[in-house]
Amino acid sequence: MPSLDVVIPVKNRCLSSCVDSLRQLGDRLQTILICDGASTHPETVVTLSRLAAIKGIKILRQPLPRFNKATLLNYGIAQSQADMILLSDADILWNGAAVDALLATLASTPQAVCHIADVGETAPTTMALTRRRYRYTITKSERVYQVTLQEAQATLPQRPGCGLICAHRQTLLKLGGYKECFYGWGWEDQDLLMRARLMDLPVLAVGQVVQQSHAEALRNQFHDGLAPTTTRDQNFITCLAALQKGQIWGSLAPQPRLPEQRPQIQVHWPPHCR
């Protein structure tokens, strides 16, 4: 049976409930890799110390002056020895049905990059469900990819789980992992999914989980307290500008030498970004 590791990036966040929900999954998991970006909050430090003593959990230290989710995820991907990797936030409550759906999808479509379809919230009035969202489409005509980004309606009482990704480790390495150039909260997950589509990999959404709702201020607590939509919007501009230049590999590995007849990528920006 293929092995599965979970990678959780964290810095000064509560993660006990997330880890407890994962441990309920039993032998579905090989190792829970917690990538700590130098937490200093007493509760987090105590929790990490307690978890480090539990079989099947490894704490990977990667001191960072701020919190770079992509850097921590890439570190976990690089350290994993499993066939497949599940990438989780620290505040997600997992269930067996969701993980089974992800694994079944990868069994039938091994080259796919899967993510959770729907995320519910423990607080139904949280701003995470009502903030302005964007959706993208990617179409291909001969050797030209058309990437279009536009505003999307919120889907109460759930939201898409684009950051809760599961794929074969070799697939993530083929993508070069995550790009580490983004500042603050938002869009590093969508960037990876977009790059997967541009490499002609299937991107499939299945399963439902719940997030432990929290204050919006926690999302950018290490980035000057900026509004999450501020950094997210700047990050998708960074993403689209890079794609327009053909930069589709992540930061985990050097960009390979590109073929002379590589596909072209044309980006269609949202009206307010033109």
Structure explained in plain terms:
The chain is an alpha/beta fold. It has one domain (4-273): Spore Coat Polysaccharide Biosynthesis Protein SpsA, Chain A (Alpha-Beta Complex), CATH 3.90.550. It has helices at 16-23, 42-52, 69-79, 96-108, 169-174, 188-198, 228-244; strands spanning 4-10, 31-36, 57-61, 84-87, 92-93, 113-121, 133-141, 144-152, 159-168, 203-211, 264-268. It has an 8-stranded mixed β-sheet, sandwiched between helices. Strands 7-8-11 form a 3-stranded mixed β-sheet, covered by helices on one side. The longest helix is centred in the last third of the chain and has 17 residues, at 228-244. The chain is globular and about 55 Å long. 37% of the residues are buried. The model has no long low-confidence stretch (mean pLDDT 89).
